[in-house]
Amino acid sequence: MEALHPDVKDILLGEDEIRDIVARMGAEISQDYADKNPLVVAVLRGAVVFMADLMRAIDCPIGIDFMAVSSYGDGAKSSGVVRIVKDLDTKIEGRDILIVEDILDSGLTLSYLIDLLKGRGPASVEVAAFLVKDVPGNTPAVAPRYVGAHVPDEFIVGYGLDFAERYRNLPYIGILKPEVYK
Ligand code: XMP
Ligand code: MG
Fold first, then answer.
1. pLDDT at 81 over 80
2. Which residues contact 112 (CB under 8 A, 6 or more apart)?
3. What's the confidence (pLDDT) of residue 82?
4. In a domain? residue 172
5. Which residue's alpha carbon is at the smallest distance from atom 19 of ligand 1?
6. What's 113's domain CATH number?
7. ω into residue 120 within 30 of 0, thus cis?
8. Is 177 helix (H, G, I), strand (E, B) or coil?
9. How many C-beta atoms lie closer than 10 Å to residue 82's C-beta?
10. pLDDT tens, 45-59?
11. Which ranges of the chain does DSSP label H, i.e. alpha helix?
12. Cβ(101)–Cβ(131) under 8 Å?
């Protein structure tokens, strides 16, 4: 059992659970892309930890690349404004694209990204989201093909996810205590 960080209220997914989830997602992706050579695109910075684990759980040929977008700043609420901070280095025309995202909340970030990438003529664009945040009365703008786990409408940190660039290095997924960000 991991030691609980004093700013973390609860652990939602421990290291063993995360390993099982990633293995299951990797197996699904390996099966679906068995005869393809997808470009797996991680969205920086939150998705790097998930990406590093997921790519090693995929056993078909893949390429990898990274994009950086900015939508949250250092706060806890989505601004709805997406800015491309770093674009792909790879040409994606005719290529199968799998976007790897840490957490899907409103889906605004991803739906912008998907439209942008589709404009470049890829063969397909799918999404693997490690987490989907369940917000009552809210339907995300994007339906990911692969989902790791659903989490409640709270601020989630660890396993790549930050608050103001902190907590990314926690090895588990936890709920941040509200007094830390309020
Ligand atoms: P949208 O609303 O566009 O937001 O789907 C997705 C992006 O917002 C960030 N995000 C979070 N980051 N804890 C975080 O560390 C959270 O609880 C959280 N909710 C949303 C995340 O960067 C994601 O890409
Ligand atoms: Mg973030």
1. no
2. 69, 82
3. 80
4. no
5. 105
6. 3.40.50.2020
7. no
8. coil
9. 17
10. 999 999 999 999 999
11. 15-32, 48-56, 108-118, 178-181
12. no
170 CA from centroid of ligand 2 (Å): 14
Mean pLDDT of the 76-89 span: 78
Domain of 26 in residue numbering reads as 16-156
For residue 52, report the distance from its CA to the centre of ligand 2, in Å.
17
User: In a mutational test of the pocket of ligand 1, which residue from 109, 133, 154 has the highest number of ligand atoms less than 8 Å from its CB?
Assistant: 109
- Cβ contact 149:140 at 8 Å: no
Averaged confidence pLDDT in the chain: 93
**CB–CB of 96/36 below 8 Å?**
yes
Catalytic, 105? Answer yes
Number of domains in the chain: 1
Counting from 1 in the atom list of ligand 1, the atom nearest the Cα of 107 is 5
CA angle 159, 71, 24 (to 5 degrees): 35
